[in-house]
């Protein structure tokens, strides 16, 4: 029949992701020791399954944008 079914958890994740794309999240830069820090909002952590202690990869795109990759 060619119909595709999405698991309810995946459907919820997709819905949360679509809502995130519609918003801007201003975040202040803080400091911790000699490093700068940013906090990731819980909404992002939920969609991307980010846990405390997770490693991320920062990649500069240009002088105004940084890409953050989660494993």
Salient structural properties:
71 residues; alpha+beta; two-stranded antiparallel sheet; 2 helices; 30% helix; 23% strand
Describe the overall structure:
The structure is a single chain. The protein has 71 residues and is of the alpha+beta class. The protein is 30% helix and 23% strand. It has 2 helices and 4 strands, in the order H-E-E-H-E-E. A two-stranded antiparallel sheet has the order 1-2. Strands 3-4 form a two-stranded antiparallel sheet. The longest helix has 14 residues, at 8-21. It starts with 7 loop residues before the first helix and ends with a strand.
Task: Please write out the topology.
Elements lengths: L7 H14 L8 E3 L2 E3 L4 H7 L7 E5 L5 E5 L1
Antiparallel strand pairs: 1-2, 3-4
Helix pairs in contact: 1-2
What's the order of the H and E elements? HEEHEE
What general outline do the C-alpha atoms trace? elongated
Q: pLDDT under 50 segments (min length 5)? A: none
Straight-line distance between termini: 35 Å
**Biggest beta-sheet profile:** 2 strands, antiparallel
- What's the helical proportion of residues? 25-40%
Number of strands: 4
Mean pLDDT: 88
Give a concise summary.
The chain is an alpha+beta fold and 71 residues long.
């Amino acid at each position: 029949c060619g119909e595709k079914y999405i698991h309810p958890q995946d459907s919820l994740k997709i819905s949360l992701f679509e809502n995130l794309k519609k918003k801007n999240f201003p975040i202040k830069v803080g400091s911790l020791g000699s490093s700068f820090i940013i906090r990731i909002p819980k909404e992002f952590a939920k969609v991307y399954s980010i846990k405390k202690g997770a490693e991320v990869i920062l990649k500069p795109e240009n002088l105004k944008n940084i890409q953050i990759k989660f494993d």
